[in-house]
Write a structure and sequence with these properties.
SH3 type barrels; two-stranded antiparallel sheet; 1 helix; 5 strands
Length: 75
């Protein structure tokens, strides 16, 4: 699934493809915003960890992964 994280005072958002379920990502975000964790920690599909300070999160957008289309054809 695609996750976009907006960070305060940063011109670009963080975009990653996560293998985790939407519920797991939502739970991690909720814990970080509720103060249970100081960092939002997510892992992307390549195994890289993304750490964002919870007090700097502006927004989080969760979306489904879009399948890439290859070739020429009618849409």
């Amino acid at each position: 699934m695609e996750v976009k994280i907006g960070v305060q005072h940063a011109p670009r958002e963080i975009v990653l493809e996560s293998g985790e379920s939407a519920e797991d990502v939502e739970r991690a975000v909720a814990d970080a915003l509720a103060g249970k964790a100081q960092l939002l920690s997510l892992t992307d599909e390549k195994g890289r960890r993304i750490l964002v300070p919870a007090d700097k999160i502006a927004y989080v957008e969760l979306g489904e992964t879009a399948q890439r289309r290859v070739g020429f054809g009618a849409l």
